[in-house]
Amino acid sequence: MIDAKLNTLLTLIEAQSYTKAAQMLSLTQPAVSQHIRGLEQEYGIKIFLKGTKGMVLTPEGRILEKYAHREAALYRNLLNDFESYRNGIHGFVIGITPSAEENMVPRVIATYCNLHPDTKVTILTDTIKNIGSKLKAYEVDVAIVEGNLQEEGLHSLMLDTDHLCLIVSPEHPFAERSSVCLDELKKERLIVRPSTAGTRRMFDSYLLSCGESLQNFHVILEIDNVSTIKDLVHSNLGVSVIAHSTCISEERAGTLKVIPIENYKSIREINMVYRDDFGQKQILDELCQIYRSCNGV
């Protein structure tokens, strides 16, 4: 069970009031204060800044909050696993990045679940950095990411390779082109992923290698939702550079046109990442087999 004092801390941060936190926890206000003082004495820190409006965490307080959330997540996972075991269900959590969510990964996971009716999978979508943190904190069991997570205690199994491409509307002047150069792309209304996205970092690195910067391009929108980006491009409201695996079905259907960027041949891996103590590698092997079958390999 999560430490009662840490649970009090998380509730207090959420409530932003000792009185409200006490009501939410069915405790007295002095008891809430005692829990916070107990944490400060135990770790030799101050949790909240004094003389500021609201409940503002100190740097040490933010660290403690992060680990409190992790402990709470572990406890929730423990309860969920007990419940699943009692119901004869094997459950695990897979963390995926937004680009991975837009390719065949969810279909592959759903196919696996249909082949194993006693399995329940929860999918969490987040940035590669956050997924790596969740994996190390046991909040997810497996991560499926573009690129890799180079951390001690983590291992990877390559699922596929991918590359970035320019996508445009079938109505765009580039639609029938065999390729475009960067100077031409500078004149276009560009829709990009946030700087935290793996595809964005790859594109930024490529621009840097060419002595260019995204600041030299006409960026009209920065958005993390890949489906929305594809819809906007299909409506000819801009062009974008995204992972090819996320737009294969649209390319085949003719709703988007994929155009190579001259002299750009960057390849990246899509990996399944797991911890040392993940004891069900046969699940990953089967997911790989299903993925390659769905991909016609």
TrEMBL record:
<dbReference type="InterPro" id="IPR000847">
    <property type="entry name" value="LysR_HTH_N"/>
</dbReference>
<keyword id="KW-0238">DNA-binding</keyword>
<dbReference type="Pfam" id="PF03466">
    <property type="entry name" value="LysR_substrate"/>
</dbReference>
<dbReference type="InterPro" id="IPR036388">
    <property type="entry name" value="WH-like_DNA-bd_sf"/>
</dbReference>
<feature type="domain" description="HTH lysR-type">
    <location>
        <begin position="1"/>
        <end position="58"/>
    </location>
</feature>
<protein>
    <submittedName>
        <fullName>LysR family transcriptional regulator</fullName>
    </submittedName>
</protein>
<keyword id="KW-0805">Transcription regulation</keyword>
<dbReference type="Pfam" id="PF00126">
    <property type="entry name" value="HTH_1"/>
</dbReference>
<dbReference type="InterPro" id="IPR036390">
    <property type="entry name" value="WH_DNA-bd_sf"/>
</dbReference>
<dbReference type="InterPro" id="IPR005119">
    <property type="entry name" value="LysR_subst-bd"/>
</dbReference>
<comment type="similarity">
    <text>Belongs to the LysR transcriptional regulatory family.</text>
</comment>
<keyword id="KW-0804">Transcription</keyword>
